[in-house]
Structure formats: structure tokens, C-alpha cells
Amino acid sequence: MSPQPTSVADEAADPTTEKAVTQDPQLREGAFGNATGLSCRECGAVQPLGPSYACPECFGPLEVAYSFPALTRDEIEAGPNNIWRYKALLPVPADIESSPNTEPGFTRLLRAENLGRELGIDTLWVKDDSTNPTNSFKDRVVACALSAARELGASVFACPSTGNLANAVAAAGARAGMRTVVLIPSNLEHPKQVNSAVFTDSLIAVDGNYDDVNKLAQEIAAEEEGWAFVNVNVRPFYAEGSKTLGYEIAEQLGWRLPDQIVIPVASGSQLTKVDKAFRELIELGLVEDKPYTVFGAQAEGCSPVSTAYKAGVDAIRPVKPDTIAKSLAIGNPADGIYVLDVAKRTGGAVEDVTDDEVRAAIVKLARTEGIFTETAGGTTMAVLEKLVAAGLLDPTKETVAINTGHGLKTLDAVSDQVGPRATIKASYDAFAEAGLV
Ligand SMILES: *Cc1c(COP(=O)(O)O)cnc(C)c1O
Ligand SMILES: [Zn+2]
Questions:
Q1: Which of 155, 264, 325, 393 is the most exposed place for a label (fewest CB within 10 A)?
Q2: Residue with the nearest Cα to atom 11 of ligand 1?
Q3: Which parts of this chain are annotated as the region Disordered (predicted)?
Q4: How far is the CA of 377 from the centre of ligand 1 (A)?
Q5: 28-70, pLDDT tens digit by residue?
Q6: What is the mean pLDDT of residues 89-101?
Q7: CATH classification of 109-134+239-413, choosing from 3.40.50.1100, 3.40.50.300, 1.10.101.10, 3.40.50.720?
């Protein structure tokens, strides 16, 4: 079969097709806050801040570099209860709060005593990102991408997506009053389609799979000027939004890092950025330097990163996804190799679980903690359980697991598992017969 790597939505695009969002945008002073440039993760070459995402020297992915000012916990705590309290650490202007956006973040960090007891973990926390404005962690990254799109003078805010990203882009674009176009595969789950279409009249369902949708997005980005595709041509800015998960967890623990953290992996961006956030907090003296361990979670039906981890190889072999965890179904993850680096450096691991384990974990989290997670969160919780059983995660150490999305978006995953215990006539006798009294 074709050796072509699967090209998917969260993938860095082919740099040969790169075209500026706008040619020579007139950047205003401080458009990207304390960011100083875009540095290549592979060769370190630095590009000026702008609509670039691939290194012109080696095609490596670009990452935002900063010169941070001295920053105190008090200054951060005085900020708003959303991701902009960390605006000094993000590539956004100082007046970011004055531009309409969905104000994501500062979601709950819940002590999960019941689940912890069931799994034998002494101190377990769930970072619950299902309560973001469009019910997934994607609102964080999209808020940062929206700022970049605005500063770069883009006229269209767009993305290829499997669902959560489309929801977040459509909602943020609506609030910003920007023209918004979101591209999805036409066979996407119905709730995710409605959750996008309600915010935009330009939801485009593409006949084909996710790979086809992404290729189309790259073609549009190459042909049209003024289109900001959040996960393609403004990806370096988009990706920085995931750092806020790490900042929040540390702040909510009382300015401390957890000992262990379990994070789902699709493109791998979120995991690598939470690690980046922890290292920045240490560097800035906002938390005490201490070792922490990062674990990655994938679904068996799309586990290119855990497969590479277990095989002990440094290269990711693309796969064709086949799993109910559709929001994690990226067969050729752009940041997969960096996930391997983080797991190895911190003494962690990358593990995968079956779809049945994902379904069981969704129900277990719901029944122990009252949190309804989507399949991505089910993957994370099932991997957490597996890591404890395998002795890879230390149950005596403080552990955080991230719930990245809401279960109402993937109802079908558990609709066979749960339902009415009985359907009865409206009489006490019938109720008694159901065995509940
Ligand atoms: C996109 C997504 C992820 C993973 O994000 P990456 O940064 O691409 O690894 C995890 N959970 C949910 C619910 C998502 O939508
Ligand atoms: Zn380079």
C-alpha cells in the first residue's frame, strides 16, 4: 500500500505549500506580548513572529520563544478567572481581554477521592476541562489562535477538525464577529456537527475521511490569502494555549507541581505544552523545582506514539485510526516524537487501552465522581488504571489526570452500557417489583 504518511488535521502541513495568512502583515507593537520569535524545535533557527509554522532551513516545527519579565504569583492571581491571567506567558497582546473571545480556562481541579480509592491511588485529582465554553480543552488553544489571526490581519477563521476543534473555532469566531469556516468529515458524530453548525452557517461536511479534510484545508490555505487555519498556518500560536492547563494545575495545587500527570495524546501538542508550562514555572521561580512524571494516553485503535514508546524507537510510524476515541484519532501525530522525549525525560510512559476499556472508564468516572467525560477522557482514565496495575504509576504519589472533553459529545460510546434499569407502570407495586425498595 501507499507509504504516504496519513495526513491529519492536527498535523503540521507540508511547508512547500505554505503561504502567509496575509503577506507582510503590519504588526502592531506588542502584538504577541512577550514572545520574541519562532524557533525551530529541530535546528533552533529563529524566525520573526508571523504566519509561519515550518522552519525554512529544515522544515522542523516552529515554537514560540519568549523573553519573560519577572512575574509574581500575586500578579497572576490578580488576573481574571480565565486563561488571560497567564497572558504574560502567552503570545498575546497585553490588551487581549478587550477583544471579544470565549474566555476559556480556570476550570475545576477536583479531588477525586472515590475514584482514587477504587484505583488504589492515595491522592488523585481530575482537571476537568469539559466545562470550557464549548466543552473541551480546545477552547484554550483556539483563544490563542484567534488572537494571532486577529493580529495577523486574517479575514477568515478556519480549521479542519474531527469535532472539538470545529466547535471551539465556530464559537470563538462568532464571538469575535469573524467570518468562520469549519471543515469536518461528513460522517462525524451528529452532536459534534450540531455543536458547530449552531455557531456558524459555514460548517462544511466533506465527503471523505479526516485525512482528506486536512489536505483540503492545506490546499485552501495555499490558495487563499487571509485565511487563518488555527491548526495549520497559525499552529505555533494555537499550541501555546495548552500551556495554560499546566499553569492552572500548578496554581490550583497551591503553586506546586504534581508528582505525576496523565494526559491524552492526539497530535501530542497538549502533552508537550503542559511539560513546557511546568518547566517555565520552575524557571520563573513560581513553583519549587522538583521532579515530575508525565504519562501519555492513547486508544489502541490509534496508538502510534505508545507503540513507538513500547518498541523503544524514536520514530513514529503512521497508522490508520480505528477507535471510538475520535478526538484522539490522529494517525500521524506532529508532536509524537516530542511526547516520547517528555515521557523518557520525566520517567513516564505512553500506554494505550481498548475501546471497551474506554467505555468502562467513562462509566466508572461518572459513577465515582459525577463527571461525564467523552471518549478522550475515558482513554485517559483507563490508561491511568492500567498504569497503576502495571506498576508504572506510583499510587502513593500525588497524581493528576486531565479530562479534556464532555461526554454529551460522544453519547453513542456509552448508550449501550447505561440506560433505564426498568420501564414500569406508574404504580407503587410496579416500582416495588423493580427491586429498588
Ligand atoms: C484535541 C483533543 C485532545 C488532544 O490534543 P493534542 O494536543 O492534539 O494531543 C485531547 N482531548 C480532546 C477532547 C481533544 O479534543
Ligand atoms: Zn529548523
A1: 155
A2: 404
A3: 1-24
A4: 10
A5: 999 999 999 999 999 999 999 998 889 999 999 999 999 999 9
A6: 97
A7: 3.40.50.1100
